[in-house]
Amino acid sequence: MLGDYLPFDAPVPFVGQLGYWEGPLRAIEDANRVGAGVQGRAMRPLDDADFAAIVLAGLSETLEPSNAPRLGPPGGFQELSETFVFDAPPAEQARRVEAILINRKIRDANFRRQVCEAYDDRCAVTRLQIINGGGRSEVQAAHIWPVGDGGPDTIQNGIALSGTIHWLFDRHLISLTDDYRLLVSHNKVPSELRGLFVNQMDRIHLPADRNLWPHPAYVARHRQAFGDV
Length: 229
Fold this sequence. Notes:
Blueprint: E1 15-16, E2 19-20, H1 23-26, H2 34-38, H3 48-58, H4 60-63, H5 68-71, H6 82-86, H7 90-102, H8 104-118, E3 140-143, E4 158-161, H9 163-170, E5 174-176, E6 182-184, H10 216-228
Antiparallel strand pairs: 1-2, 3-4, 5-6
């Protein structure tokens, strides 16, 4: 199930700009009685329309058309907008939300946003930060445990790498130690690229928030594949 997990861009608050997200709570006329309505009910059913609204709010930054040059394909996700969901019959809305949650392009854009923001748009290995005129970072969001092998789209399974470094990382020609120092397969890495690793003994560039660092289990999994190359 972890491989299907998709984090929101930001937590959706209990109360939105237009009031409570949950229909039964909106139906309570006396706001002072809302607390009693949720007491002892940490898990509550949602109807399809409320569920759809919460998901779209949680992914609003990823789905925002103006962010497409930075996060996703040039055209963005206009075909998967609020209209795509709320113009559908109520019975169809949940299925359309599911289509958003499993859409690979959306998951990639969401993952890229998480990783690039955490690493300040800077390659973890070269420490270079290059951003083009459109605001798109040169770094790529690399999965440590590949999605194709069951890896999740979570920040702890990600690392920001420039294109060339990403290519080497995916082929397990470089990896990481438990303390986030670089491992290089010098006999397999092309000689013209070895200059990228002059600071190999230093810890790579990591997010300021330690909770966002690569998970040791994912790093160990990648390192095992590095050792098998």
